[in-house]
Structure formats: structure tokens, C-alpha cells
User: Which sequence fits this backbone?
């Protein structure tokens, strides 16, 4: 079986890319063959056809047009596939036989840069990891060039959780680590790519082996300049307040649990940024609040400064509206995908820098003047763009008009010829008429001779023989050309094409020049995005009456009149009830009781959100706040029941609790919302109690625990650092009224039935429930006596049917005690049991 030469070329190339969909460029299409074609046709819902390729049977084929390929590629890649783009690398017109083709780029889930699934207001990372102690992790946002690395003390699970927490779409790993990570990465929806690095990179950018592996992988797949990738900046996990991904979800920091949208999240609340870069930076800060007091105070000083200079703040906001996504634009400079329009956005952005700098330097507050000094006016790039680039260049280079008039004499001339060619010919006609005296001399054009001078028979004798060359004789006229005319003709006809070629070259030079400034421009971009987030903090502080937090040594926390900023904002005009939260070094565990819907979860979340905002360097929603610097936040909050993840709710609850208990230190904040709700009452209550005791005795972290189990409030007497609080509700006409006010002491009623009533369950059910409750309340004393709070030994599980309490002894019991069960055969056991039962009935 022999294939056509082209198919042989395909097969040779495909051998190098067995795990990729190979997009093979044929004219205006990318074609896929064999298995690739079958699978792609199914995924992309396009027609599967066949192609004669020399063999007996037609081979399966499908294809997508070149100009609309991006959408198809995105579909494949967003489903976790990889696409290799194979282009013609020679001009087909200039080659005989088969055109040379090469794979020019491999697009993978972590290296997809544009499309519907890619939002410019979020970072999209690709990472690499090497397991071992400690595990290394490195990651890059290919669009912006941001590159970071860290090490992780724990196991594979912590690594994958960390990767998910950072929004890493694809994780590159060495072969030996693949098996260990495979299952976990599937669970967390992270694409794993195995890569074997062939040679040492010798790059100054890298900080560890993981960053080297990542860079090598990027070079191998991207096959283009990566000059915008910044040196990896290495950080230790302890530099930041760590919030595991479950808690990020539970606290709705970036994504709302119910809608998956940004609305209703902390990021939505705080995002008063004016630029896409600022919006991304804000999310980075939410993901990684600081853990260093000096750095936090520094950010807060900037917020103070903006608040103290209202007008300046307004002017800076205004100036930032003209700042475009410089980081991504620089990515395009590096990838050579910059368009004229992009360059104009870059120019606009750079022009804002001197303005911003001047504004900041004028400020009275030293924090702002020092920021002003940090902004370096990119004078060389700015002036170059101002000189070279047209006012409003078109989107593509194809039509020309990108380069400004006056930048290149040669280009100006070509453009003049192009647009003014006709004028020039009209002028020539005039001057030739004057020179020769032939009044009806005309200049004309035909396809065969191009431009010519025409003289009617009667005027032919006036032709200037020294210059005119006879070209054609007609019945009543002669046509001539001159050297000057032919020269101009070529110029006029080629002018447009030449102008385009020249413009492309000039633009390419411009891009290359910008490329040499990438690293200083990136620093500038970073400063601008930081400025944007800080001004956004000030906007929020002002708009929502936030306060500057103070930080205390130790665990002391004192929030006065605190609010949940997001719930409050979502409530529009409804009144949010502010609440205090006081945790001292010797009372740092709160057990919160109160009816359903009273606001227990909201209260707990608001404490965590306040801490996070403070450590990001933002003002906080409270009258006053004195906070400890916290190292980790863990939450176990009911709402995020992970049905889609396939884990049972109760299992998930236990896994999250385990992560919190293993990970927490005395400097952490733990939030446990109704632990044990997912199992039977006594099971749940026992677990909750055991956890509280453990945290109290072994961890000592600031902890908020909410519960429905009123029995647990008795623990206050036994655990020194535990204090009962409750969210108050009152009852009016047998209906519950929520006050949302947190008060000292335990709640006295659960009000569950009233909430059911509010939800308009049928009255018959409500009445029956009330009746049952009354019955249970009668039995309650007896049940409670079985639940032992006096010893910390495990509590025995109690069946729901009351156990008969046997007083005195019974002969059957004596017989039972004397049996040697392990030495009996099953038949003996059965007989004995039969006998015992008979005796029992007799008594
Ligand atoms: N401080 C507050 N001021 C005003 N409204 C509040 C306050 N806290 C909570 N709410 C409102 O009460 C509703 C219920 O709050 P939340 O979910 O926190 O109650 P819960 O006690 O945790 O309920 P459950 O026990 O059923 O989980 C919220 O949706 C919110 O709108």
C-alpha cells in the first residue's frame, strides 16, 4: 500500500504528534485524517468525508476553513485535547512538488490565549510540578508573561489542590509523577501533560527544576519567541494568607456558588478597577492576601492617601480609563501577533504614564509621591509609537494605513504615487501638450501597453522624437510611450503593493524595537495595575463606609459593628444588621446557635471576609476592627454541597473538616457551619463535640462553630476557651421574627417549624410536626442523660427506641455472662440462645 507523497508527508509529521489533533494546512483549509478525523468530526459536529490518498480505500478526512479555525481549535482544547498546527512553510508558488510543512505550534489547555472561554480579567495559568520533598510548583500566564514558583511541603493532594486554587488549567509533569497524580487531577479537572525535558535550558529566568521543566515545555510547544516571559519570582507559601479552594468556594470570593458568576462575590464587590490589568491583579490579591504586617500597612497607606485626596483620586481614575491591557499587549509584541490597533492601544497607554506620574508627584501624601517616582515614563517607546503609528490604524495590516505619514520618506512617496497617480498623469498630459503644442494630446491606458500618449494623425508630426517611442498605430491615431511614463507606470501600478510590503516591514521593525523594552514595560504594567487596585480599594472604602483595620499581636480579634459587604450590597435598600465579634486570647472559640435562616452562616462568613479584605490591604466593613494576622483560613460551610463532584455530602463535609484540622495552626481561622448535620443526630453531635474538643486542646485556632444541636452549648462549662453566642430571633403570634443580632449566651429554641411555616408547607404538616415536637420534648430529659458531657471518652451510640433500663439482676443475664462464646460451634450457640429465650419467657 503506497500513499501519495503528500499523505506520506502527513504520516511522517503525525508520527511526531501522536497525542495531538494534527491540523494539516492544505490551501485555505486545515485538514484532519484517519482517527483524528473521525474523532474531531464527532466532537466538532462537522462532516466526515474521505480522500483518495493512493491506497485502495479512501481515508477518513474532515476539515475546517483556515479563517474560522480558531473557534474549532478552542472547542477541542477546552475539552482537554491538544492541537498541533501544521503550516506550509514555503510559498507554494515558488516550489516544485510537495510544499514543505512543519508543526509551528502546539495548542494545549494551558496555552490557549484567546477565545470565548478566555476572559482577560482573569489569569489563565499553565504550571509544572515535580513531586518529592518538598514538591516544586512553577506557573506562567502565557498571555501576560507573569511567572512564579513556590514549594509545597505536603503530598500530591496538596499539590493538585494548590493548582486548582491558582486556576492552573494544565499541569506539566515528569513521567515518573504521572501515575501518582492522574486520578487526582481528573477529580479536580486539571489537564496533566507528561513531558520529558531533553536538554538543560541554561536560562536565567528559572528558579528551580519545575520552572525549567515548564519553560522547556513552553519552548517545545510554542516554537516562537517567548521574550515576554518574566524571570520566575519565587515565594514561600507562608508569605500569604492561605485559603484552600473549598474555602474560596464557600466564601464566594471569586465565583458565586449558586450561579457560578462573579456577581455576589467579594471580587464583584471590590472590583472598582478601571483596567483589565487591575481586575486581574485584584483577583490575584484575593487569591493571595498578604501575611506580612508591614506590607499590608503599606497598601493601607495608599488607600488612606487616596481617601485624603479626593480630587486627585478622581483624576487618577479618569486617567486610568485610557490604560489598556498592556500586559496582554506585550504578550502580543513578543508573539508577533500585534496589530496596528493593538499598537495604538499601547501608545494610548504609554501616553497616560507621564500624566499619571505628574498627578502622583503633585500629591500631598508621601505614599502617592513615592508611587509617582516608581512610574518610569517609557519615553523612548512612547515617542517611537507617536512618530511611527497612524492616528487610528486599522485592525489588520492588510489594507495598509498603519504607519503615520512623515515617518518614512519612501513610504510617503509610494503612497503619493498610489493615491495621486491620476493627478500626476493629468499633470503630465498638460505639460506634454505644452511641450509639443499638440492640443488634443491624451494620456490613456490599456492592459497590453499600460499607459501611453496618444496623438491624432493630424498632430503626429508634433511628437517629440527624442523622447517618444512609437508603440501602436491605429486608423486615426498613433500611440507612444516615454521612459519617464513607463518608470512612473511601474511605480504607480506597484505602489500599493510596495507600500504594503514596506509598511509591514516598518511595523515589524517597530515591533522588534518594542520587544527590546519588554521587561521595563512589564514593570510599568505591574505598577499601573497595582495603582488601579489601590484606587479601587479607596473607591470602595468611600462608597461603602469601610474602616481601616488595625492589627494586633496574638489572636485577639475585635470587630465592632461588622457587616458582610456582599450580602449588604445585594440587599439593596434593606437594612443589614451589624454585629460585633470579639475573640480574646483566652476566649477564642464561639459556639453559635440560633434558628435556621437567622444569619449564622452569614455572620461566620463575614468574619472571614473581613480578615481577607484586611490582609489584602483593603479597608473593612465595620465601625472598627482590630485583627490578628492570620496564616490560614479553613471553612466547612454547608452551601457548597458538591453534588456534581460525585462525593457524598457527608463525605465532603468530613474531608473538608479533615483538611482544616490537619492544616490549621494556632494562627488560623476555622469556620465550621453545622458540622455533623449530614448524619444521624447522635452521630453528628458526637463528631461535632469531638472536633471542638480537639481544636480546643490541640490547635487553639480562632474558631467559629455553628450548630443546631443545642445540647452542645453545655460544652461552654467544660472548654475554657469556648463561649456561647446566639443569633437572636423573637416570636410573635407563633411566627418567628429574625433579628439577625448576635448576642451572648445560647439560643433557647430552634424555631425550625416556624421557618417551615414561613416556607408555606401545608398547615397539616406544620400541626403534626408541632405535635411530634411536643412529644419529643417530653422525652428529651431521658435522652440527654445518656449523652455524656462529663467525660471526654467517645459517646455511645443510642438507638432511637428507648433502652429498657434493667434494675437488679436476671438469671438469664447471669447465664449469658458465663458463656464462652468463642469456644462454641454455631449450632451450640443457636441451641443456647434458644434455651435462654425459653428461660426468659418463663420468668
Ligand atoms: N446581619 C444580617 N442583617 C440582615 N440580614 C441578614 C443578616 N444576616 C443574614 N441575613 C439574611 O438572612 C438570610 C439567612 O442567613 P444565613 O444563611 O446566614 O442563616 P443561617 O442561620 O445560617 O441559616 P441555616 O441555619 O438555615 O443555614 C440571608 O440570606 C440574609 O439575607
Assistant:
Amino acid at each position: 500500500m503506497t500513499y501519495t507523497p503528500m499523505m506520506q508527508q502527513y504520516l511522517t509529521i503525525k508520527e511526531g504528534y501522536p497525542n495531538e489533533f494534527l491540523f494539516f494546512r492544505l490551501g485555505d483549509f486545515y485538514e484532519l485524517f484517519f482517527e483524528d478525523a473521525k474523532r474531531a468530526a464527532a466532537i466538532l459536529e462537522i462532516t466526515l468525508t474521505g480522500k483518495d490518498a493512493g491506497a485502495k480505500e479512501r481515508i477518513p478526512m474532515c476539515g475546517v476553513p483556515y479563517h474560522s479555525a480558531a473557534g474549532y481549535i478552542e472547542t477541542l482544547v477546552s475539552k482537554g485535547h491538544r492541537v498541533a498546527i501544521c503550516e506550509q512553510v514555503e510559498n507554494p508558488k515558488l516550489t516544485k512538488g510537495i510544499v514543505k510543512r512543519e508543526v509551528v505550534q502546539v495548542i494545549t489547555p494551558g496555552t490557549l490565549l484567546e477565545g470565548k472561554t478566555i476572559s482577560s480579567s482573569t489569569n489563565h495559568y499553565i504550571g509544572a510540578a515535580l513531586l518529592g520533598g518538598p514538591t516544586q510548583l512553577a506557573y506562567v500566564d502565557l498571555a501576560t508573561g507573569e511567572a512564579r514558583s513556590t514549594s509545597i511541603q505536603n503530598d500530591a493532594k496538596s499539590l493538585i489542590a494548590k493548582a486548582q486554587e491558582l486556576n492552573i488549567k494544565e499541569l506539566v509533569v515528569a513521567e515518573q509523577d504521572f501515575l501518582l497524580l492522574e486520578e487526582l487531577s481528573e477529580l479536580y479537572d486539571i489537564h496533566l501533560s507528561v513531558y520529558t525535558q531533553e536538554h538543560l535550558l541554561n536560562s536565567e529566568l528559572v528558579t528551580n527544576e519545575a520552572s525549567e521543566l515548564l519553560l522547556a515545555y513552553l519552548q517545545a510547544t510554542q516554537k516562537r519567541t517567548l521574550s515576554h516571559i518574566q524571570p520566575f519570582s519565587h515565594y514561600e507559601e507562608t508569605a500569604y494568607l492561605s485559603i484552600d479552594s473549598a474555602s474560596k468556594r464557600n466564601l464566594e470570593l471569586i465565583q458565586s456558588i449558586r450561579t457560578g458568576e462573579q456577581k455576589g462575590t467579594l471580587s464583584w464587590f471590590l472590583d472598582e478597577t478601571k483596567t483589565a490589568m487591575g481586575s486581574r491583579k485584584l483577583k490575584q490579591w484575593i487569591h493571595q492576601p498578604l501575611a506580612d504586617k508591614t506590607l499590608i500597612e503599606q497598601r493601607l497607606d495608599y488607600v488612606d492617601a487616596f481617601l485624603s485626596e479626593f480630587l486627585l483620586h478622581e483624576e487618577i481614575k479618569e486617567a486610568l480609563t485610557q490604560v489598556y491591557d498592556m500586559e496582554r499587549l506585550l504578550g502580543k509584541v513578543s508573539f508577533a501577533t500585534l496589530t496596528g490597533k493593538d499598537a495604538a492601544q499601547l501608545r494610548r497607554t504609554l501616553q497616560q504614564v507621564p500624566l499619571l506620574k505628574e498627578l502622583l508627584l503633585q500629591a500631598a501624601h508621601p505614599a502617592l509621591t513615592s508611587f509617582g517616582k516608581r512610574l518610569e515614563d517609557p519615553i523612548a517607546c512612547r515617542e517611537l509609537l507617536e512618530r511611527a503609528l497612524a492616528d487610528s490604524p486599522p485592525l489588520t495590516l492588510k489594507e495598509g494605513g498603519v504607519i503615520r505619514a512623515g515617518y518614512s520618506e519612501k513610504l510617503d512617496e509610494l503612497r503619493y504615487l498610489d493615491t495621486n497617480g491620476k493627478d500626476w498623469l493629468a499633470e503630465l498630459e498638460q505639460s506634454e501638450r505644452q511641450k509639443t503644442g499638440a492640443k488634443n494630446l491624451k494620456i490613456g491606458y490599456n492592459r497590453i501597453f499600460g499607459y501611453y500618449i496618444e496623438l491624432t494623425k493630424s498632430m503626429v508630426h508634433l511628437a517629440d522624437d527624442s523622447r517618444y517611442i512609437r508603440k501602436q498605430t491605429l486608423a486615426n491615431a498613433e500611440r507612444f510611450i516615454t521612459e519617464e511614463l513607463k518608470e512612473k507606470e511601474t511605480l504607480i501600478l506597484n505602489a500599493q503593493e510596495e507600500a504594503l510590503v514596506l509598511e509591514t516591514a516598518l511595523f515589524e521593525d517597530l515591533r522588534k524595537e518594542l520587544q527590546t523594552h519588554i521587561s521595563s514595560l512589564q514593570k510599568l504594567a505591574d505598577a499601573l495595575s497595582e495603582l488601579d487596585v489601590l484606587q479601587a480599594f479607596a473607591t470602595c472604602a468611600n462608597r461603602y463606609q469601610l474602616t481601616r483595620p488595625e492589627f494586633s499581636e496574638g489572636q485577639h480579634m475585635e470587630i465592632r459593628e461588622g457587616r458582610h459587604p456582599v450580602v449588604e450590597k445585594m440587599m439593596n435598600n434593606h437594612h443589614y444588621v451589624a454585629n460585633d465579634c470579639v475573640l480574646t486570647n483566652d476566649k477564642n472559640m464561639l459556639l453559635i446557635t440560633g434558628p435556621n435562616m437567622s444569619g449564622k452562616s452569614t455572620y461566620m462568613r463575614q468574619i472571614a471576609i473581613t480578615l481577607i479584605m484586611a490582609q489584602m490591604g483593603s479597608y473593612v466593613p465595620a465601625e472598627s476592627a482590630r485583627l490578628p494576622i492570620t496564616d490560614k483560613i479553613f471553612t466547612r460551610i454547608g452551601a457548597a454541597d458538591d453534588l456534581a463532584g460525585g462525593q457524598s455530602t457527608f463525605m465532603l463535609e468530613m474531608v473538608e473538616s479533615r483538611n482544616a484540622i490537619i492544616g490549621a495552626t494556632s494562627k488560623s481561622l476555622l469556620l465550621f457551619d453545622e458540622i455533623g448535620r449530614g448524619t444521624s443526630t447522635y452521630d453528628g453531635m458526637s463528631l461535632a463535640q469531638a472536633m471542638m474538643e480537639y481544636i480546643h486542646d490541640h490547635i487553639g485556632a480562632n474558631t467559629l462553630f455553628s450548630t443546631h444541636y443545642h445540647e452542645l452549648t453545655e460544652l461552654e462549662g467544660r472548654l475554657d476557651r469556648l463561649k456561647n453566642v446566639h443569633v437572636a430571633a423573637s416570636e410573635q403570634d407563633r411566627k418567628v421574627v429574625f433579628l439577625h443580632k448576635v448576642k451572648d449566651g445560647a439560643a433557647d429554641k430552634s424555631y425550625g417549624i416556624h421557618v417551615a411555616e414561613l416556607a408555606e408547607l401545608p398547615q397539616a404538616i406544620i400541626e403534626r410536626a408541632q405535635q411530634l415536637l411536643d412529644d419529643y420534648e417530653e422525652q428529651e430529659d431521658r435522652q440527654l442523660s445518656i449523652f455524656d458531657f462529663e467525660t471526654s471518652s467517645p459517646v455511645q451510640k443510642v438507638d432511637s427506641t428507648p433502652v429498657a433500663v434493667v434494675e437488679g439482676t436476671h438469671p438469664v443475664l447471669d447465664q449469658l455472662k458465663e458463656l464462652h462464646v468463642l469456644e462454641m460451634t454455631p449450632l451450640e450457640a443457636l441451641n443456647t440462645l434458644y434455651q435462654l429465650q425459653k428461660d426468659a419467657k418463663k420468668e
